[in-house]
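Pilot study result, target chain (233 residues):
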Amino acid sequence: MPDGALAARLSAIDARIADAARAAGREPGEITRIVVTKFHPAQLVSDLQALGVTDVGENRQQEMTAKRASLREARAESAGLRWHFIGQAQTNKAAAIRRGADVVHSVDRLRLADALHRAADDDRVLDVLVQVNLTDDAGRGGSALTDAEELAEHVLGQDSLRLRGVMAVAPLDEDPAPAFARLRGVSERVRSLAPDASWISAGMTGDFVQAIDAGATHLRIGSAITGPRPERG
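Predicted structure:
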């Protein structure tokens, strides 16, 4: 049974999302809230499902795989739950990521797109987003702004992948609003290649208001809902 504090945090964030959407002239129903459960136990995912959560996010393949296995073993995973992989992906883990995720937000290079495509072992089409680097630091995750369309076009050529849109993390040393505006520009160019690729995955606890104002459709929110991460042994 979920505790009251978890329900209160979820309700408070959802109210803030709705307020931000309306302030931006948008409908709250246009926005998907993904609860990031990094480092929390599988039981938290069950508690979130009981509160009506349909989308959860994980940063690490091993953790995502273990949680899904635990929930299946306990017969506690809802058929309507969508798992979003939002962390940096290694090509040698593409098969495990593909088995565990319903959506991969972090396709940032051609080799990763190819690895995810080669890992297909059934008829399921995997939803993916092109991750964009909004900084000048090549060490940050994501495709360069100038390379995003080429990557999107490459993804469109892989029949086991479905391009859903773009994803980015706001820079640490910049107002998120202009950074998210750049992402929106990339989204528009990608949609000129694939009109259905309309998702913009952007915005976390500290900047989701600016992300919503820039057109974000998917928000990735963690501890503001889940509470402090457990101590890791």
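One observation from the pilot: Residues 33 and 219 are 5 Å apart (CA to CA). A full batch analysis is planned for the follow-on phase.
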